[in-house]
Amino acid sequence: MRVLITGGAGYIGSHLADRLLAEGHHVVALDNLSLGKIANIQHNLEHPGFRFVEGDILDKRLMEQLIEECEIIYHLAAVVGVKHVVSDPLQAMMTNVWGTGVVLQSACDHQRKVVLASSSEVYGKTMKSALAEDDDRVQGSTQVSRWCYSTAKALDEHLALAYHRQRQLPVVIIRYFNSYGPRLDPQGYGSVVAKFANQALDDQSITVHGDGQQTRSFTYVDDTVQGSVLAGTVEAANGEVLNIARAEETSILRLAEMIKDMTGSSSDIVHLPHEREYGENFEDTSRRVPSVEKAERILGFKAEVPLAKGLEQTIGWFRNQR
Ligand code: UDP
């Protein structure tokens, strides 16, 4: 198949490209290189099945052309990472709302299947465990910029479902849960895992926000990619929303301790108020645990990589980058 990956030079997009190329597909990777990096796709630039296009999803004409040429679109391009979103909410919303609108409209015009990357952030600040895809979303105030990412992704989901129901667009929505692995930004803009791993390797203080009792369900990138590929291939997923996650709940303090141990670092673990990183008027998400039942039932997907093993791979990769 001929596959278009928007955000194809990004952290997840580039891993997805590797996997699809290995399966013999042709991959066009579109990226505006705002967060994506050539280094992530360097090894594929000479591959006969791979083409990189530097461009933006807001460019309607370009999108029309690329979408017409492919059979399926993995739409991963987005402004991601809490730090990026709170520092430039305008850019985040332009890309995450209008950009997705351009992709969906064009995909609909050409009746091309879309796998839309959404996020566990959509659930907001609910404390429920085993979050199911049809559970309520609990959102904070519009005066707290953090929630614009959640709101934008929810709007994308509504838009995709409306195109599906009213215009017969084949679409699958996948909600990623704290994906981590090689190629994460070492500054940790997109993930606490990258931040802690690099702090530990540098023997600098590991900066836990608040008491560190907030939890996440970290999903190794190989699993994230496996779930994404299945979403694009399993016919029964059409029109569905699916959590792509591993249901292993870990506190941020525990994550810091694991990374400190695994790196053999002499770093101390310090606690900082969230405001130091994200400014005043910030709200964190205290708990985020998925139900994985639906993805298992519909896709036959089960995330396999335990946190300790995934962290080993990720830390090893960061070590090699030095
Ligand atoms: N976090 C932290 N120290 C850091 C960076 C992040 O304690 O240096 C915390 C952050 O406040 C949040 C959790 O780690 O509670 C996950 O943050 P991340 O930005 O990775 O993703 P999120 O799930 O919040 O989108």
Describe the structure.
This protein is α/β, with parallel strands linked by helices and 322 residues long. It has a single domain (2-180, 218-247, 287-305), classed as NAD(P)-binding Rossmann-like Domain (Rossmann fold), CATH 3.40.50. Helices cover 41% and strands 17% of the residues. The chain has eleven helices and 13 strands. The strands form four sheets. A seven-stranded parallel β-sheet has the order 3-2-1-4-5-6-11, with helices on both faces. Strands 7-10 form a two-stranded parallel ribbon. The chain has a two-stranded parallel sheet with strand order 8-13. Strand 5, helix 5 (147-167) and strand 6 form a beta-alpha-beta unit. It is globular, with a radius of gyration of 19 Å. The chain starts with a strand and ends with a helix. The structure holds uridine-5'-diphosphate (UDP). Uridine-5'-diphosphate is lined by residues 82, 121, 178, 188, 191-192, 195, 207-209, 214, 216, 252, 274, 284-285. The site of uridine-5'-diphosphate has 16 residues, from helix 6 and strand 8.
